[in-house]
Amino acid sequence: MASSTAPLIVMQTCIPAVVGVVAFGDTVRDGWALAVVAGPVASIAGAIHPGRAPGVRMAA
Known about the structure:
mainly alpha, about 60 residues
């Protein structure tokens, strides 16, 4: 379940943020450009990782 939930949550945050910047002209505060780049990169990497991890077998 985590392999489909994590990307969904990340996209529900990233897409509105991009729309805000592109459609509404939102800007980033001075000095926060690194956080704007690092945040989504870390989120997307964290969302991809569970999907690529091997599954765990449950004991019967």
